[in-house]
Amino acid sequence: MSNLDRDPGLLLVEEDAPPARRIDVLTPRDVPLGGPRAMTVRRTLPQRERSLIGAWCFVDHYGPDDVSLSGGMRVDGHPHTSLQTVTWMFEGEVEHRDTLGTVLTIRPGEVNLMTSGSGIAHSEYSTPSTTRLHGAQLWIALPEDQRSGQRTFQNYAAPQVRIGDADVRVFLGDLADQRSPVHTWTPTLGAEIVLPPHSRLELEVDPTFEHGVLVDAGPVWVDGELGEPAHLLYRAPLAAPLAFETRESGARLLLIGGEPLGESIVMWWNFIGRSHEEIVSFRDDWQAEVARHAAATSAAIQTGDAEAFPTEGFGEFPSTWTRVLPAPELPSVRLRARR
């Protein structure tokens, strides 16, 4: 998914943050995905209080939306650098198309993980048969030694297993004797957990990981801290089980985690880099491809002969793309690194 925030720029990180509680509750902000009938996402990462959970650097949560009212998801071709995108659906279907040549419909219970390397582009459109759209889009920052690697795409249907009273799908990493084959470049966890009413679940988790709990439906208590729907609850590395509890209603959540990245990143729009200058370079490269593609598309309209469009650094644009998203203007001040 593209970050279509009209002002994707500066989130200043405090140099000396106060000591974290066992659980910190991060509340979302609403971000429209462009246009007067746009669907709106709830963004909980990044924000002023926290930029990263392990290598997870971006969390958007959306729906359930009536597509007849919201218009569904219509995100034209857009770029990514130095990251992996993770798509997880609760309801509905989305067509993913990228500059590797991948064309695939994303369905509930399946994870799509796209690795950008130094640059990739993709589009996402809800399918005509989708009436309700509900899911999450997350990003994982690539470590320095892998962020200029190859573009890749992986899809995995995570099996549902019963752990205590809960239904669990582990789509990234390892949890409760379940292992996902999907490859990430940093130690990473991703799982969907569905809890019935009046239940309690304790999970042994990696004590070196930071963990985040995105509440889709709830409420749910995490280590005794209340999490309402759309909240993201953060726990620092801790040698203790992670405990979940429900009361009158059940809950559904996404559990994410990973080893602290240990690197500073600069993140703006759909780009992750290591310096302000690198982000400027990414933007310039993308804008040049946008201009070239617009000229090629105009010529194709006149001749009626649309073809795939090769780029210098973002792969080959599919022939079905009639437009791609230009980057917004950069802020007037330098972008700061996040730790």
TrEMBL record:
Gene3D superfamilies: Jelly Rolls. Coiled coil: none annotated. Residues 192-288 form the Pirin C-terminal domain. Residues 40-140 form the Pirin N-terminal domain. Belongs to the pirin family. PANTHER family: PIRIN, PIRIN-RELATED. This is Pirin family protein. The lineage of its organism: Bacteria, Bacillati, Actinomycetota, Actinomycetes, Micrococcales.
